[in-house]
Amino acid sequence: MTDFPGAPDPSAPRDGRRLRVLAAMSGGVDSAVAAARAAEAGHEVTGVHLALSANPQSFRTGARGCCTIEDSRDARRAADVIGIPFYVWDLAERFREDVVEDFVAEYAAGRTPNPCLRCNEKIKFAALLDKALALGFDAVCTGHYATVVTRDDGSRELHRASDLAKDQSYVLGVLDDRQLAHAMFPLGDTLTTKGEIRAEAERRDLAVAKKPDSHDICFIADGDTQGFLAKRLGMAEGDIVDEDGAKLGTHEGAYGFTIGQRKGLRLGVPAADGKPRYVLDISPVNNTVTVGPADALDITALTAIKPRWCGTPPSGPGTYTAQLRAHGSETAVAAELVDDALKVSFTEPVRGVAPGQAIVLYDGTRVVGSATIAQTERRAPARLA
Ligand SMILES: Nc1ncnc2c1ncn2[C@@H]1O[C@H](COP(=O)(O)OP(=O)(O)OP(=O)(O)O)[C@@H](O)[C@H]1O
């Protein structure tokens, strides 16, 4: 017996090509079409919706959050139309511990985490995948836009999606070979735009065809990250200072800021040069936020920790392109693994990089690996003679 209904019948015949696939169905259009494509390709597909919120009703705000009862119903209806079995699995406690609490703790420590990346690493391709494999499934299928390529030797590569505008390889950059070997992304292989996916959903009679896209942080349905953090971390008034430590204003919680932020500083003292000020540093220890001019945001190098590789780690220094945020552009870097830390230098300075963000390295369209930014190095400030 199992707590997770929907396990395939172990006595059922299997052939090498017809995989037993667990389709992760959020109740949105992408995962519905992905599940339909996997079933159409001849795989034995079972749909599963993950209940990730302990209190799904609390997310019903009108904006689309995640894992509401409506979402689970939408996923079930889509599974019915596709003609596959469907189950709801409760991973709310794991999600709370591994994603939500980590998110709060990272902000409290003055860092800027990416919860989607964390969810892929800890929930979808760990808790969910492990459970799926233990139950006899061969693969987990999601509606992510990314491509898995199998090399001649059987190992896997993760590549950007064919549709670069929708590419989600950045948030999947934490996956290793084993996880990739059991991942299926039916949307990433084809050059289909989101509009075409919606049209395909309509052709397939999937009621979610017109459902709005989910927004970035699924457990903050109204999009008010600062409000969410304030509720969790409380208010803690502190100083906003300039690079020399002179007080320019006050704030109500250092966690409410991100590096590179300009809006909402409400400085009492205008900058001497009249130019706008940006958040340069957040110090939870002193509860201070340091601000300065835009060019002080330029980063020339960084150190990133906890590297994860899609394949064998690079044995020496190499040149790559790097992406530093989910919808960011690529930038040229040189990178080297030194004592388990990734040392990265940028060909051109980049602006507004925050500790806690992930850096994902690419070789062309291939994801090489990822790591968490721990320290950044600024260009030496220009001094007046
Ligand atoms: N609550 C959930 N239950 C099951 N699978 C989920 C859930 N949330 C997300 N997923 C899976 O992770 C994928 C990527 O999640 P993301 O939040 O980026 O969704 P999306 O791109 O808006 O896709 P969708 O349109 O399917 O919601 C989804 O396509 C789906 O396969």
UniProtKB/TrEMBL annotation:
Its main location: cytoplasm. The active site is at C119 (nucleophile), C218 (cysteine persulfide intermediate). ATP binds at A24, M25, S26, G27, G28, V29, D30, S31, L50, G143. The record marks H144, Q357 as: Interaction with tRNA. The keyword Repeat does not apply. Residues 301-373 form the tRNA-specific 2-thiouridylase MnmA-like C-terminal domain. It is found in: Cytoplasm. GO terms for molecular function: ATP binding; tRNA binding; tRNA-uridine 2-sulfurtransferase activity. One of its GO terms (cellular component) is cytoplasm. Transmembrane segments: none annotated. GO terms for biological process: tRNA wobble position uridine thiolation. The keyword Lipoprotein does not apply. Its EC number is 2.8.1.13. Signal peptide: none annotated. Residues 166-168 are annotated as: Interaction with tRNA. Gene3D superfamilies: Adenine nucleotide alpha hydrolases-like domains (2.30.30.280), HUPs (3.40.50.620), Translation factors (2.40.30.10). Residues 227-292 form the tRNA-specific 2-thiouridylase MnmA-like central domain. It catalyses: S-sulfanyl-L-cysteinyl-[protein] + uridine(34) in tRNA + AH2 + ATP = 2-thiouridine(34) in tRNA + L-cysteinyl-[protein] + A + AMP + diphosphate + H(+). Belongs to the MnmA/TRMU family. HAMAP family: tRNA_thiouridyl_MnmA. Catalyzes the 2-thiolation of uridine at the wobble position (U34) of tRNA, leading to the formation of s(2)U34. This is tRNA-specific 2-thiouridylase MnmA.
